[in-house]
Each structure stands twice: as structure tokens, then as C-alpha cells.
Amino acid sequence: MQTIQATNYSVFFNETGYEKLASYLTASSYSRIFILVDENTSQYCLPHLLNQLATDIEIEIIELEVGEIHKNITTCTEVWGALSELGADRKSILLNLGGGVITDLGGFVACTFKRGIDFINIPTTLLAMVDASIGGKNGVDLGNLKNQIGIIREPKAVIIDPSFLSTLPQREMRSGLAEMLKHGLIYDKLYWDKFKNLTNLNTDDLNELIHQSIQIKNTIVCEDLTENGIRKALNFGHTLGHGIESFFLESEDKKTLLHGEAIAAGMILESYISKEKGLLSNEEYHEIKYIINDIFEPIVFEATDIEKIIALLIFDKKNEFGKVQFALLDGIGRSKINQESDNKLIYKAFEDYLL
């Protein structure tokens, strides 16, 4: 697959990525290479990466526990401490080998350790390949509030190796599809149409869909790196989706949702708001709802759940002047940013979702 050029880095694919990684590490004369993994990627992905690293530079491994619950400042402190104890300096580089938690947190750790060391993202989940590792957003959660602490700084490179996807459970694969669906909905109707029938999807088809999804996100980010305009469109489904994800994360009696599962629900809800605002036709809304519900199992919400989710919206990082800001659809394949919605309409969206 063809290399994708971002603002200040490249996204490489398959063997090309490992060749570029080896030559880059040699040319940059790093003092040490640190690889950040979690328990799963340490077991299933690290051996493959180490076999690809043709370098004499000393390599150290830092392993974290699995899960969004560990994406916080406490974990960052532990990683900063490990880097210091293992002799990291400003000429060290951090390779983030994992899903969205590892790439988000690892990027933030690298950006802040000794005022910034280089990092490269090597995503191992579908979600991280098409979203978390691309675009330079790095950060952690504040309690159960998503991505409240962070910085925008691009990696030195991103390496996409779809062979890692064979290590994923089916639920994790579905989670990644949510962001791909979103890219079609906000930017490219023809791309969205490809998800109407996934019955005969093969490996080559999936690899091409991944490449196109990354291209869409990269095109948007290159136009607006610091999210002052069009990049806000990438938040479609995330205002309510993050509220849902945070609520289920903090609720002891609820099953924790994967990011994509929460975002899938958020996209249906925000599609309904788009429809009610006259931006989306009734036919388009029902098409979106049907296709997403065909891939993702609908979430059950109690009335008290909805109240608490709406209360969390005020913490969304897109808000301005105390007002909740939505990125909505302006028809399939187009978006409209900086949109507001009152709570009454949000409640109606939940009511329709539950039908």
C-alpha cells in the first residue's frame, strides 16, 4: 500500500514500514530505544516487532496493564519513572506498540519527558490504526473523563502492519469499524457505501478500507492540525459517545464499553439530532441507524443513565463558553461543526435509539 504523507511525518505500511523504521533508527543515532507495550501486545506483537528491528541500539521494554482504566496520570508517572531508572535521555526514542491506550498515553509520555523525546506509533488494533495513532493527539483521561489532559504533537512516523489484527478478538475488530464508519459519514459517501455489505469482506478489502480511512483522517488533520475548524468534524458521534463511555466506565453495575461501541451509539444519537435539525433526511438517518445496529449490539439505557450521561457532556473538550458543541452530519458524506442542541432534543434522541 502506498505511503501516506502527513504534515510532518509519514504513515508506512507493511514491510516498507519496518524497512523505513530500521533506516530511521540508524540514521538518527538514538542513545536507547524504549518500547511501550501492554500485557497483550507484549505477548502477541512484541516478538514480531523485535524480529524486524535491525539495530545495535540498546532496547528496553516497558509493560503496562491492559485497559482504558490505566490511561491516566498515575500510569504516566510510572512510565516516566521507568524511563528515568532505565537511563533514558533526550536522544532516546519511544516506540508505542499497542492500541489506542498505548499510542495516546505513550505519545503524551514522550512529549513531556525531558520536555519531549521522539516517538513512533505502531498500532496493533483496528481502532488505533485508523484513528488513535494518526493526527498527533496524545493524552490521558482525568478520572473517568475522556482525554482531558493532553497535547497535540505529531510522531516521527506511524507504521501500519495489518498482520497484528489477527491477534484481536472479534469485539475489538468491531470497535475499530466505528471510526471507519464515521470517516465515511462525515467526508465520503462512497466510502460509507462500502460498509453496507461486509459479508464477503476479505483481507485485501480490509487493508484497502484501512488505507482509505487513514487517508480521510489525514486529509482533514493536514488542513487543521490544532482543531480550530474542520478537524472538529472528526468528533462526530464523540460528544455523546464519550459521555456514554465515561458513564459506563465509572458505573460499577455496568459492563465497560469499548470505545467504538460507545461511539457507534453516539453516531446514531447525533444522526438523530442532525435529522431533527433538518440537516439529514429521514431516509439517511434510518440507513445509518440500521447499518450501525447491524454491526454493533444496541446498548440498553435506563432513564437515570441518560440523565447522568447528559450531565457529563459539560466536560466535553470541544465545549466553548460553557455550551456543548456537536459536530453533526449535513447529509451523508458531509458535516457541520459548532452545533448546539438542547437537552430536550438529546432525550428524544435516546428515546428513538431505544425503539
Top keywords for this entry?
single chain, 16% strand, 355 residues, 11 strands, Dehydroquinate synthase-like, alpha domain, 14 helices, Rossmann fold, alpha/beta, 2 domains
Secondary structure layout plus pairing:
Blueprint: E1 4-5, E2 10-13, H1 14-28, E3 33-38, H2 39-44, H3 46-52, E4 59-64, H4 73-85, E5 93-98, H5 100-112, E6 118-123, H6 126-132, E7 137-142, E8 145-152, E9 157-160, H7 170-187, H8 189-193, H9 203-223, H10 238-250, H11 259-276, H12 282-295, H13 303-312, E10 326-329, E11 335-339, H14 343-353
Parallel strand pairs: 2-9, 3-4, 3-5, 5-6, 6-9
Antiparallel strand pairs: 1-2, 7-8, 10-11
Helix pairs in contact: 5-6, 6-7, 6-9, 7-9, 7-11, 10-11, 10-13, 11-12, 11-14
Describe the structure.
There is one protein chain. The relative contact order is 0.11. The protein folds into two domains: 4-167, Rossmann fold, CATH 3.40.50.1970; 170-353, Dehydroquinate synthase-like, alpha domain (Up-down Bundle), CATH 1.20.1090.10. Strands 1-2-9-6-5-3-4 form a seven-stranded mixed beta sheet. A two-stranded antiparallel sheet has the order 7-8. Strands 10-11 form a two-stranded antiparallel ribbon. By secondary structure, the chain is of the alpha/beta class. The protein is built from 14 helices and eleven strands. Its cofactor is NAD(+); Co(2+); Zn(2+).
